Amino acid sequence: MTERLVVIGGDAAGMSAASQARDRRGPDDLRIVALEKGAHASYSACGIPYLVGGEVTDVESLVSRRPEVFRDTLDIDLRLRTEAVEIDLDRRAVAVRDEEGDLGWEPFDQLVIATGAVPGRPDLPGAGAGGIHGVQTLDDGIALLRALERGPREAVVVGGGYIGLEMAEALVRRGLKVSLVDAAGQPMSTLDPDMGALIADALRDLGIRVHLGERVEGFEESGGHVTAVRTENLTLPADLVVLGLGTRPNSALAEAAGIEVGETSGIRTDRRMRTPTEGVWAAGDCVETFHLVSRQPVAIALGTHANKQGRVAGINIGGGHASFPGVVGTAVSKICEYEVARTGLTTAEAARAGFEPVGEIMESTTRAGYYPGARRMKIKMIADRGTGRLLGAQIVGQEGAAKRIDALAIAVWHEMTVEEITGLDLSYAPPFAPVWDPVLIAARKAAEHLERLGRRG
Amino acid sequence: MTERLVVIGGDAAGMSAASQARDRRGPDDLRIVALEKGAHASYSACGIPYLVGGEVTDVESLVSRRPEVFRDTLDIDLRLRTEAVEIDLDRRAVAVRDEEGDLGWEPFDQLVIATGAVPGRPDLPGAGAGGIHGVQTLDDGIALLRALERGPREAVVVGGGYIGLEMAEALVRRGLKVSLVDAAGQPMSTLDPDMGALIADALRDLGIRVHLGERVEGFEESGGHVTAVRTENLTLPADLVVLGLGTRPNSALAEAAGIEVGETSGIRTDRRMRTPTEGVWAAGDCVETFHLVSRQPVAIALGTHANKQGRVAGINIGGGHASFPGVVGTAVSKICEYEVARTGLTTAEAARAGFEPVGEIMESTTRAGYYPGARRMKIKMIADRGTGRLLGAQIVGQEGAAKRIDALAIAVWHEMTVEEITGLDLSYAPPFAPVWDPVLIAARKAAEHLERLGRRG
After folding, report:
1. In terms of domains, do B303 and B209 share one?
2. DSSP state, A366?
3. Window B:20-49, CB contacts with A under 8 Å
């Protein structure tokens, strides 16, 4: 008998799951329906800032697989502008509102919940005014592009995380005057304060006015359109506002159905992406995952995790065996010529997780100092004082700096000590690194630092 | 009583050992003499091709620490143009010929042998002619620069390894017509043949005439200067010849003294860089080291290993504790816009080491496909059929491709399976990688390949 798989959410996690399941089970064995409430499926949400900034000019290039490919080649019944409004576990069916607004029930044997994340949109006076944009979906990105055509002059970006900074750069590229507001004392609060301060300096170099420690209290409007952003101390004129306030797992539908949601508000799954409810899987930004260093659940909205988790769910539904082992919190971003990356825990996170973190910033170059195009970069390594284990690392530098975080992410993954890292056989040639790669220098400095502390007892 | 440390060889390994020992023991505790037969110490030999090619214009920029720094700041008695001609283990002294040609004895309590490598220079008719250059030492590089001033027109590079290719590029940059000759059927025989073929294509794109499977049989000369390179089938006109034939450990001095030399002709040491002879250490290109995948001794001449091994010897002589765990055979190079990297074992090496290697080439891009500046790259992963363990990896691509080898080197180091690699938390943002980093895609493809083979039994 043909089994029925319903996938809620047609982006990275959902369509990866659908594709992998199809790869292993033909249409006679598994009927697949994918429900996407937006107008686009299977696109790179991470590409939106570059669409807005103009580096990417073709909206379609962000779509990794067109709907026809799913429908015609993979025999996946992908329905756009179609919203799942309820999951009924007793009936084993999802209530669906289609493009025309008609309601119906879609029965399932297997269900993948891939409902993504919802943006943190402040419930503040004036938050509904025109000109205030989120940038979570491709539809959001297209709306923002249209807003730019109306020629706004002054933009305020609220939130100094990855998306906020990428959007600030995009708007600078479009010739707007840009201010950035963040309630925290530093941009990029996923970094230690000393590394975050380097980012604040870089933003100011780019002509962005950076207002830190300022919580947004409301928006002023005129004729239904935003005119200013108000904080405790400031009124920042704006005819365009971009909200980059981070996200939380979109788990309301699952929770309403009685599917277990964790303290992060992400849906709970095991390593095979199974929820505790038989036949119900979850993947992507709507789930919580396991941090391999803090040993705590975390919810991290990132396309790369969503793709992997979707693949794992799909392989398992397809009859294979795959698992998602967890994360170490790796992330990377680019703001004009500056590259920023991190992995593992920050100093504060490490202390909260019960370690005794010790860290130091080290400066080096991306290539041999004498080789043309060598750029400056700084690495901070955070090690556990007692064991010497690398707990986390952060990089701020110019071209060629940030991707070195991958080596450090794998070192963190394997619980290497900083002394062990100094022995790693990393690649060296003058166009690629100094003879001691910055990763190795940072490990040496960290090891020496720990040794000095050890001698002091 | 003051101990006496003598270091033979004033480059990466020797001067790292001397500096680290000094860092831990003052001049009253440890007297340090370093003997260097050449005119330069502590320089980047790997930078010579870029000096010859003109990317680096200042010879001095290749020197990482000037002799005065060692003498005045570190109190290390560095003697240039001073050759160690014999080690007498009974007398615990080194026979030394100084700049004036005078012989004397230098007694030691601790000895570091860091005599480097000797180039493979063919014993062929005409090999002594003018215009035939090695490129091993900075003095060689300076001699070649002078030869270029005489305006040669046609160059033949003998040997298609890293140095040969880097020199071929350098000579193309200088406007010479360049031919490359290699006895093997592919350039870069540290890669699998299918990856090496990509390099041969790239070299031809650069206008280099590539002659493979041609063993050099001799050199023609006129008036003491080379005029052509003869192979079995070809006579290649040349007024400049560069030999890039690889190197072997320069262990003759040690061997003559009765210090143990292994089958690679490298000096044998333990992980702390001690030879079996009490108080005698060795480090750098003159030693053999342990390959962590093949579990066999290997001799790999590379500045990064030399620096690490020298550091380890110096820390241990200084009373600390450090060890050099071995290598996984990582290397990287750049030939014009092409980047080449490898780690672990090739398919042939893996088979020789008793594995059942399975490999496939995968193509991807260095950034998200839609992001400006995305470049093509190919990765070949070699996995063990039985266990799925990653045995080696090779990369050929354009800007931003090759440094990804570091992630793979650490995966090889930790004996990860290709399926485990698919779960790694590597950094993703469109300016840095597709949502599946090429490393992860290659691991997925390799895992799928192994699964298909497994099904076939």
Report:
1. no
2. S
3. 44, 46-47
